[in-house]
Specification:
By secondary structure, the chain is α/β, with parallel strands linked by helices. The chain has one domain. Helix content is 29%, strand content 17%. Strands 1-7-6-2-5-3-4 form a 7-stranded mixed β-sheet, with helices on both faces. Helix 2 links the parallel strand 3 and strand 4. Helix 4 crosses helix 5. It is globular, with a radius of gyration of 16 Å.
Length: 214
């Protein structure tokens, strides 16, 4: 990523040094996931649509720990693998919007809330700015080479308000999830998550000077 583009990474120090963490990343371009993987301070395991695992990309993505998910149904194998990442104290990456779009966190699926509530892992919001497609690119599938892409990490937060974490102060093993996985609990968590992610995106835009930009 540093060879092809000019990423500017802000707030990476906010990522807990140890223990399970969920990265919630806005998604407006295919480069967003690889960019976060390339600049994050910890190895990241993303849930990636199975359609991306084709040809030589299949063994490559699998080899670097990425998780194949079938978006057409409740993929129990992918869910189990993702929870396993968190149970082992790793970092799970999720695009909470489910697919590429405006990258503004305007519409979230329930998957992020489920993993956060089930595992008790804190969520770190990440805004990737400058990757959205624009006319006139030499290679449509990529941002202009050597262009600046901002990756802004936010403060960790809990999906359910009031849940305390041993992460306060910067590390250590976190207590397990609350176990509240009812539809109401997930809806409440999703609403809280969306407010936090939207707030982080606005702060990231102000911080980077990319108002209205993704």
């Amino acid at each position: 990523m540093h060879g092809l583009f000019r990423p500017r990474v802000l707030g990476a120090w906010k990522v807990p040094a140890t223990g399970p963490v969920i990265f919630a990343v806005n998604h407006s371009h295919n480069i967003d996931g690889p960019m976060v993987m390339g600049v994050a301070p910890r190895p990241t395991h993303f849930l990636i649509k199975k359609e991306a695992f084709v040809g030589p990309l299949d063994p490559f993505l699998t080899g670097i720990g990425q998780l194949k998910v079938d978006r057409s149904s409740a993929d129990r194998a992918a869910i189990s693998q993702a929870l396993g990442v968190l149970e082992n104290g790793g970092v799970l990456g999720i695009f909470p919007e489910g697919t590429r779009g405006e990258g503004d966190f305007a519409s979230l699926r329930a998957g992020l809330a489920y993993f956060a509530v089930r595992s008790g892992a804190p969520i770190v919001p990440i805004a990737v700015l400058g990757s959205a497609e624009r006319p006139g690119r030499l290679i449509k599938a990529l941002p202009p080479l050597r262009s600046r892409i901002d990756v802004v990490f936010g403060d960790p937060f809990d999906a359910i308000e009031g849940v305390r974490s041993s992460y306060e102060g910067g590390g250590g093993r976190r207590e397990g999830g609350s176990g509240r996985r009812t539809r109401r609990a997930l809806d409440e968590a999703t609403e809280r998550i969306q407010k936090q992610l939207t707030s982080h995106l606005e702060n990231a835009r102000r911080l980077t000077g990319r108002r209205g930009d993704t």
